[in-house]
Amino acid sequence: MLYKLAEMGAYHRTMKVSTQYLAEKTGISQQTASRNLIELDKLGWIKRSITTEGCLITLTDVGKERLKNLYSKLKIVVEAVYPLSVTLEGLVFSGLGEGAYYIKQDGYRKQFIEKLGFDPYPGTLNIRLDTDYDIKTRQELENYPAIEIEGFKNESRTFGPVKCYPTLINNKAKGALIFAFRTHYDSSVLEIIAPQYLRNQLKIKDQQKIKVEIFTMP
Fold it and tell me: What is d(CA 86, CA 213) in angstroms, rounded to the nearest whole number?
């Protein structure tokens, strides 16, 4: 409704419009159009005056700012080379425990804290993807921009670079998808790190299905 009012002229000047005409322009009932105007007025997004001939309406600075924010977000989505996020779904399973060894390495841990903004729990949440769509999308992710964790050497061996993608698990817990420690898993598996022990935080067990939203770097 805010966009339609701006399109009809209320962005730059005060316009006069009846709720019946507005309903016809937006494809909604007159009652709904009236209710939308009342709500926009209460939010402070429009300034509305009622006359015998109709409503005098203009967008407030707050309303204009809301449209500008929407424009900026749409521009990012439309012009982005990569999707800003993808959501994958799979089943939790118990891993081999090798993730904890790598996470504890200071060469990785210090970079996780600096670049991801959290000190990871020493272990990974392992999720097995169970559809061709999810596996294919997981493979495509490897070509998307990521947070780069540099490889390093210590006295005994060399540790390779790691790519990380911020994640939101079950729409509740923040973490990061990692590619890849020296792992025995193929592209059907996600390995997630987080500041907390995710199984306890989310109360999840093996064979439980969960969703992971993965954010690429613009």
Answer: 6
Whole-structure pTM value:
0.70
Pairing of strands 158-159, 152-153: antiparallel
Please check whether residue 204 is in contact with residue 91, taking contact to mean a CB–CB distance below 8 angstroms.
Answer: no
Is residue 120 within 8 Å of 193, Cβ to Cβ?
yes
Q: How many helices (H) and strands (E) does the chain have?
A: 8, 12
CB 90 within 8 A of CB 213: no
Structure confidence at residue 181 as a pLDDT band (50, 70, 90): low
pLDDT of 38 reads 95
CB-CB contact of 112 with 193 (8 Å): yes
159: its two tokens: 């540790």
SS3 65: helix
Domains of the chain in start order, with CATH, are 2-79 (1.10.10.10), 85-215 (2.40.30.30)
Question: Could you tell me what percentage of the chain is helix, strand and coil, using 3-state DSSP and rounding each to the nearest 5?
Answer: 40, 30, 35
Among 118, 106, 112, CA closest to 153 = 106
Structure tokens at 79: 């012009």
For residue 1, which of 52, 59, 50 has the smallest C-alpha distance? 59
Do residues 130 and 90 touch, judged by C-beta distance below 8 A?
A: yes
Rounded to 5 degrees, φ, ψ at 215 are -105, 130
Report pLDDT digits (tens) over 14-32: 999 999 999 999 999 999 9
Burial 104-121 (b: 16+ CB within 10 A, else e): eeeebeebbeeebeeebb
